[in-house]
Amino acid sequence: MTDTASGTAVRVSVHISGIVQGVGFRPYVYALASHHQLAGSVANDERGVIIEVEGPASRVDAFLAELPEKAPRLAVIEEVVTAPLEPRHQAGFSIGATTGSTGRTALISADVATCAACLAEVLDPGNRRHRYVFTNCTDCGPRYTIVRDVPYDRSATTMAGFLMCAECRREYDDVTDRRFHAQPTCCPACGPRLALRTLDGTAVPGDPVAATAALLAGGAVVAVKGLGGYHLAADARSEAAVATLRARKHREDRPFALMVADVAAARSLAAVSAEEEALLTSAARPIVLLRAREPGVVAASVAPGQRSLGVMLPYTALHHLLLAAVDGPLVMTSGNVSDEPIAYDDTDAATRLATIADAFVTSDRPIQTRVDDSVIRVVRGRPLPVRRSRGYVPMPLMVPVECRRPILACGPELKNTLCLARGHQAFLSHHIGDLENYETFQSYLEAIAHLQRLLDVVPAVVAHDLHPEYLSTKHALSLPGVELVGVQHHHAHIASCLADNGVTGPVIGVAFDGLGMGDDGTLWGGEFLVADLESYERVAHLDCVPMPGGAAAVRQPWRMAAAHLDAAYDGKTPAGLAVLARQGRRWTDVLAIARAGVNAPLTSSAGRLFDAVAAILGLRDEVSYEGQAAIDLEMCADPDEPGTYRVDVANGGPYVVDTGSLIRAVVRDVAAGVAAPIVSARFHRALADAVVDVCSRVRSARGLDTDALSGGVFQNVRLVELCLDGLLGHGFAVLTHRQVPPNDGGVSLGQAAVAAARDRLRPS
Ligand code: ZN
Ligand code: ZN
Ligand code: FE
Question: What number does CATH give the domain 9-95?
Fold first, then answer.
């Protein structure tokens, strides 16, 4: 029946690469081929999915046309390669097993929130998965957090130890079932078990969810094992419970994330726009930073001094059941002490969290890779990532130039991610954290090894920061037989923004940041770079001041106030300033350090300028985490204040933004008794005006009219919006981050893009 009026029988092979394994792709192909009455087969291999179809040419063409269009929800098709074959006059269509071959380029999916169909089963008393918290299917469930190796098969995941029962096996083998080849599928008869345990490891009898809800209602802190690690949960309405958690966690002032049952519950805490709702309910289920309603809806200790709340929706069946049982918002913060990485190994968690949690909700399904919750905010209707991790990793980003050779970008020191790149794809790792303790550095090395194995990438080119003391730089320099590419920190920030937007430049890059090693030995952080992916030129910067005491000046913003005031007033800081009076003798000592220039590196950092102004306004003299004073300054700004300050820009090459003129304007207002919210608003606007001023001068000189905004300071929504208004109003096109954070979490993508661009310039 293959030779018909509609055409002679043809046979073609179709190779599809992308995220096509573990997402229901083979059953989809089977159904589509059956619909078109085609013979052939479909199978996974180590590069993706391989299909052979045979039938009349017109039907094969229709099949090929529909193939990418109707693909499953979680599939990401990157490439389709077809080739003609000899017809075999085969009958029927079959689904083959996974075949082995060389080249492991099949992509692993990110973890996916529990789908509606699975949740309905969990809530249905008549279903065999009623209240079973590990329920998943091809559309949802754990992926990256359980994968040990590729190809993605159950035996290569942490579900390997669970033998499927007959019923699960039947679903797994049934091409028409939602769980056909769902690798982590399981049920109460055969899958992992949930248990509530006391601190000595004793399992609490009865339903773990109900018992946990009762503990939480009584004010307890409970460690709850999730997809990528443990959360610490507490009743968000109980000031006593949240304050206890805060005290035990040593998390001085950092805001806690909240989990609420649904969008309606989120709306009762904060304003939720359509874009924010889309993010909250997306399969990735990130924490979305929302504008809080009136204070008092949740305990004050949840987010002290913040106008925003970090809110996420349940992403496992356990979360859904727990939120329903508690009937109110829960604090769900990462399970760690202070700055340590999140606990994910059960034994490790039992030890490290014993002083924080009153009980543990745990299971016998191991977590392979620790993955923190992702964090996003929406600015002007567009996502601005703060942390890209669970739900996004390891989905690839596209680099705008093709990598000639595989690249490893080692990332920065703080908020580290690393990046592996090959071809047009860049794989940004999960959030590793600050590489300052042994445990975090170990998890960094493990992440590199794990991603290299999953992606089968052996890097030939290794990109690193210029700072010689970063552990990531030291790691790069320790690697034998690779070509090293040093990338200046702020060039990496701008390149990251370019790659994020799929362009190569050149642009006028504005990198406002904490600190990064400059190419002149000073610490940069308030830079204007004319940059493309290959190179940059520093065309302007904020005026440099000493950072008295080095790292101590990061922890104590008043030191930056001393340095900026001393520079602004040429050593004659007006007496009577409150910040000066608060420090007394220490002020004089620190000025001596600043003036002597010993242990007082020069910096043009915008982040440190925010610190200085926050201290001058009396908002904060010391911080418990980097950026805290700058956040205070942003939060305090009066949104209705239209005023600004005049900021001088010194002509020359490079232009220098006279931060002294800005500091003096702030001091004049403070001396005149102008309230801090007004001064903060004027300061923000003045800085944005200075950005527009400098970019306009650079445009005149260079003929460039696209700006790229990057660096940690551009997490400041107020500053981003003022810069957008100013620059767009002056006819610039403006690139901001959309997929990776403007902070150091995005730096490794920039390093990889720069290395890829430079590698293409080399003679082969
Ligand atoms: Zn599902
Ligand atoms: Zn089962
Ligand atoms: Fe940075």
Answer: 3.30.70.100
